[in-house]
Amino acid sequence: MSDPASRRRHLEFSKCTFCRKDKNKCEPRHRDWPRQKCKRCLDTDRSCSAGAAVTARKSKASGVGPMATRDALDELNQSLRDFLKMSKWLEQLS
Predict the structure, then answer these.
(1) What's the superkingdom here (predicted)?
(2) 53 — phi, psi (to 5°)?
(3) All structural domains of the chain with their residue ranges
(4) What pLDDT shows up at residue 18?
């Protein structure tokens, strides 16, 4: 038998809009939409949407490598230096 700790958890991919937004379980999973609403939409008297699956998203870090981060930091440092020069110049005027 397989160890319960080694089993992968099952994520619910098909949810109505309100359950997905509130990050709650959408039951019943297999419902006859639009005639049948999910339990939460019935309880709160909302219009239930059809269960929709979310498409896979790219990683937040995709396309941002160490060099891109280094370039952004260099640009930020330059902007800060320019700002400090400007503030010193304004101080001298007053």
Answers:
(1) Eukaryota
(2) -90, 145
(3) 12-53, 65-94
(4) 86
Cα 36 from Cα 63, distance rounded (Å) = 43
**Element (H or E) spanning 72, and its range?**
helix 66-93
Question: Structure pTM?
Answer: 0.43
Q: Which amino acid is at 22?
A: D
| pLDDT profile of the chain (94 residues), mean per 10 | 63 78 84 82 86 63 64 86 90 84
pLDDT value, residue 11:
63
For the record, the structure tokens of 28 come out as 């019943």
Alpha carbons within 13 A on the beta-carbon side of 55: 1
Query: How far, in Å, CA of 48 to CA of 40, rounded?
Result: 9
Q: Identify the residue whose tokens are 């269960």.
A: 51
Tokens encoding 53: 């699956």
Place of tokens 């902007």: 79
